[in-house]
Design a protein that fits this description.
By secondary structure, the protein is an alpha+beta fold. The chain has three domains: 106 residues, N Utilization Substance Protein A, Chain:P, domain 4; 63 residues, OB fold (Dihydrolipoamide Acetyltransferase, E2P), CATH 2.40.50.140; 165 residues, K homology (KH) domain (GMP Synthetase, Chain A, domain 3), CATH 3.30.300.20. Helix content is 41%, strand content 23%. The strands form four sheets. It has a five-stranded mixed β-barrel with strand order 4-5-6-8-7. A hairpin with a 4-residue loop joins strand 5 and strand 6. Helix 2 packs across helix 3, helix 4 packs across helix 7 and helix 8 runs antiparallel to helix 10. The longest helix has 29 residues. The two termini are 70 Å apart.
Length: 425
């Protein structure tokens, strides 16, 4: 071995951080194995490498029954330099790989919960490989956002779920569907969260669809919701863009459980909340036209509010509470319970039935022919007669209703049925 190799080892020690003595020790052990494969080699041997000159010497040994050396002689093969050079190359490459793995593990060990940015190297339905620059991370299919397509070359953010130290090297597992990923994204956009002026108290998420977060302020002059939304929604918009359009609702946390549950069900307006602290259940009364909005699409709003508050929520309309929809009450209660279990009923199914006539009322209604025959007579009567004539059961909906909701509320209800308003700020 010449000085060039020793110079190379010193360079590796400076640039890669691999100690030269470590490489020399590994090389000596590898050369022992190489020596034993040469013809006429002793059964036991040791190899020494001069740290200054790089000179290699091989010594054959005789051992007694206890493993003690009883005889030793120099037995360096004539062409051992060629064998040593090939072995040294393999050992150095292996030590470099091991050193890189150790550096990666030391760099990411204990960083669970950090937010990282990487580039997708490859992706399929099982997992995606994310290039972090100095390491590679794996994004399992179960930790992806549902229905999200990650193409090669896409730059994405992810949350470090776990760092495993395995025999083949450390494995960094990341997630984009974990609720804490939302917290990390907001901490990146909202300085007040890092400073401690505001804090996220709770997170409820259905990845790919909707997220609710509850925020509280530790400073009286700081609005927690406004700080997270940002000027004209700039801060929350950055989070939504990273989540590929997932809706984010920001509500203010309240130590009063009743007020917090009412806030958690936003954008629906709540009339009353009754708690059972022993069973951890809450009965929520909402106006009739707000029922479908409170439940949400397929029960999503109610489920997220329940997770956010930690209470099982039973949502009832004002008519149900007053006993006006007795026939439909049992059915609606079952659907709300299903919503709570996670399967959910659609907003249209959970909405109370209208004032459709019963079979008995329909039987009492005149036929079409009878109504047409009576029409000329109605035209011939005076105005007083027309006003005094009772309306048909089937025309109840056309009569003015003084208890009907104001026009603004009706407009809100129509918006809620067609499209759930986005409260992303």
């Amino acid at each position: 071995m010449d000085y060039n190799l020793m110079d190379a080892l010193e360079m590796l020690e400076r640039e890669k951080g691999v100690p030269r003595d470590t490489i020399l020790e590994a090389l000596a052990n590898a050369l022992v194995s190489a020596y034993k494969r040469t013809p006429g080699a002793a059964e036991e041997a040791r190899v020494t490498i001069d740290a200054d000159t790089g000179e290699i010497s091989v010594y054959g040994q005789d051992l007694d029954e206890d493993g003690n050396v009883i005889d030793e002689w120099e037995d360096t093969p004539d062409d051992f330099g060629r064998i040593a050079a090939t072995t040294a190359k393999q050992v150095i490459l292996q030590r470099l790989r091991d050193a890189k793995r150790e550096q990666v593990f030391d760099l990411y060990e204990g960083r669970e919960g950090d937010l990282i940015t990487g580039i997708i190297q490859q992706s399929d339905h099982r997992y995606s490989i994310v290039d972090l620059g100095d390491a590679e991370a794996i994004l399992p299919g179960s930790e992806k956002i549902p229905y999200e397509r990650l193409e090669r070359g896409n730059r994405v953010k992810a949350w470090i779920l776990e760092v495993r130290g395995e025999g083949k090297g450390p494995q960094i597992v990341v997630s984009r569907s974990h609720p804490e990923f939302i917290r990390a994204l907001f901490e990146l956009e909202v300085p007040e969260l890092v400073d401690g002026d505001i804090e996220i108290k709770a997170i409820a998420r259905e990845a790919g669809h909707r997220t609710k977060i509850a925020v509280a302020s530790n400073e009286p002059n700081v609005d927690p919701v406004g700080a997270c939304v940002g000027a004209r929604g700039s801060r929350v918009r950055q989070v939504v863009n990273e989540l590929k359009g997932e809706k984010v609702d920001i509500v203010e946390w309240n130590p009063d459980t009743k007020a917090f549950i009412a806030e958690a069900l936003s954008p629906a307006r709540v009339q009353e909340v009754r708690l059972d602290d022993e069973e951890e259940t809450a009965t929520v009364i909402v106006p009739d036209h707000q029922l479908s909005l409170a439940i949400g699409k397929e029960g999503q709003n109610a489920r997220l509010a329940a997770r956010l508050s930690g209470y099982r929520i039973d949502i009832r309309s004002e008519s149900q509470e007053l006993g006006l929809d007795v026939e439909d009450e049992d059915e609606d209660e079952v659907e709300f319970e299903t919503v709570e279990e996670g399967d959910g009923a659609s907003a249209a199914e959970a909405q109370p039935a209208g004032d459709a006539p019963s079979p008995e009322d329909a039987a009492d209604e005149p036929s079409t022919e009878e109504a047409e025959a009576a029409a000329p007579e109605a035209d011939a009567t005076s105005d007083e007669t027309v006003e005094a004539e009772p309306a048909l059961d089937g025309d109840e909906d056309t009569a003015p209703d003084e208890s009907a909701a104001p026009a603004d509320d009706v407009a809100d209800s129509e918006v809620a049925e067609d499209e759930e308003p986005d409260t992303t700020g």
